[in-house]
Write a structure and sequence with these properties.
alpha/beta, eight-stranded mixed beta sheet, homodimer, 274 residues
Amino acid sequence: MSKSPQPYVHGRSERETIRLHDQASGLGFLLHEGTRYPPGSTVLEAGCGVGAQTILLAGNSPQAQFVSIDISPESLARAQERVSEAGYTNVTFRQADICSMQFPSETFDHVFVCFTLEHIPDPLVALDNLRKVLRTGGTITVIEGDHGSAIFYPDTPEAHRVIDCLVILQRQAGGNALIGRELEHLLTESGFVDIYVSARQTYASQNIPNSSEAVKKIFIAMIEGVREQAIAGGLADPESWDRGVRDLYRTTEENGMFCYTFFKAVGKKGLQVR
Amino acid sequence: MSKSPQPYVHGRSERETIRLHDQASGLGFLLHEGTRYPPGSTVLEAGCGVGAQTILLAGNSPQAQFVSIDISPESLARAQERVSEAGYTNVTFRQADICSMQFPSETFDHVFVCFTLEHIPDPLVALDNLRKVLRTGGTITVIEGDHGSAIFYPDTPEAHRVIDCLVILQRQAGGNALIGRELEHLLTESGFVDIYVSARQTYASQNIPNSSEAVKKIFIAMIEGVREQAIAGGLADPESWDRGVRDLYRTTEENGMFCYTFFKAVGKKGLQVR
């Protein structure tokens, strides 16, 4: 069990840490394409977790200065270790809750948030806080998945059911696993301007090298990570759960396919403050 | 009512013809990107309908020769008229059923099929026929949508329900509105080789010029086209139908978004025939 201050549907196990790093390295090009910060700029990474995205940020913009915050001290410790191992010196870590952080107004040139809003009960409160600490004219970048975007073949009700279990568990923990589709309206309602959302889709099959492996390591591993919670919560019995997971693995085998969409939203803090 | 030889879920009305041309011109770049045929090559377009894709094919590969077939003589007449109006002389039209056409083996250098397999009860029979008339070493290109890929905000059960109605009606007519996810396995099972499927996604919102208009003209118009069938078939009552359609329109308004994925599969006829 996690000793962390907030329920986190995926847990903070060693296996989950590996999964998060696999996810970041496997999807780095897809998700970080277009995200480069100028030399000397200061960037807040809000919700850095175990540092999976931090490594990419620090490496892609080596002359920018990052402040990476997370609510979990143990995740921060792992992130710090990871970034040190990689030899990056342009990241400062700080324990803070996005919804109640105490940075002065207009502290950062840019803000980056990835796979974080999906776990926050009120993302508008978080975005409001992030807008405050962002300098006028600066950008916010938000990246989230949307489990409703999963399309696969063979398509079975059991496979959909195990994904739905994660969606329900995440909702019970105060999050939203279908938040990708909401980024446009969330940024708009938070008062950001010049909003541009791009859908970033992955298509995996045995005809595309390494793609099916990535589905196993990133998506199916995430589903498998909530097996005990789903069963304990009465959302699935062990047999139907295992059938659903087996069906997901089947999509990575011969003739199978698996498709998933991430959403990347970029907005600007305009002159006009609400 | 249509006098055509086969049930076709979308009907063959004037409004549907306009919709199909809007679809082709609006999505032409997205779907035809990468499809160019060499001078002198002969290409079978299987299921040309009213010629919406034919115009793009003929224009993009002006020195290739196209033979465009369709099961419906009235659709063919419209296609022919359209292509003549556009001034293209590299298309021959012929009435034929993909599942029983009589071209000699190895007649065509390439085959192109768009929004057609989704309406055929046994797509493997169609693909088998298409493989026969394709020369060894030639390519097949198949483009299909997948209504299960529709992601939108605001997300309401009523909006999903009207989409589901079309999926059910299309299934009742022998088709499959979720066929996009199946292209990889269909081409594999038909014996094609070097298969590459690309997911081609559209993201529409008011922040992207013309995109919400396209959702209305292409997707919502298609849904609206089956209103009477859905109500007559007992799949929806008029009130819940109209609410679902209104909810879909809402996704094209302020803060809304609508996302849809097409799948484009290219395969080759290898030396080894099954």
